[in-house]
Each structure stands twice: as C-alpha cells, then as structure tokens.
C-alpha cells in the first residue's frame, strides 16, 4: 500500500513539473514524502 501511495505521489509530482501552477511547491513536498516512505521500506527490508 505504501508503494502505491509513493507511485501516486510521484505521478502527481511529474504532473506538477509539466504544469507551471503555484501548487508546484506542494507537489515537491509530496515527492519528498514519497521518497522517504520508499527509503524507510527499503531500510526495513520490506519488499516493494
């Protein structure tokens, strides 16, 4: 489930990069959250 959320956040970030709206800063925060969640899973040793 965490992996799915990370993928959704990554897609939202990519859409934010394509569109030049002011919500881009929020999208970048979501990307950082997605990366942190994936790293926590990798460090714990859980399978993606």
TrEMBL record:
<dbReference type="Pfam" id="PF18919">
    <property type="entry name" value="DUF5670"/>
</dbReference>
<keyword id="KW-0472">Membrane</keyword>
<keyword id="KW-1133">Transmembrane helix</keyword>
<feature type="transmembrane region" description="Helical">
    <location>
        <begin position="6"/>
        <end position="39"/>
    </location>
</feature>
<keyword id="KW-0812">Transmembrane</keyword>
<dbReference type="InterPro" id="IPR043727">
    <property type="entry name" value="Lmo0937-like"/>
</dbReference>
<protein>
    <recommendedName>
        <fullName>Lmo0937 family membrane protein</fullName>
    </recommendedName>
</protein>
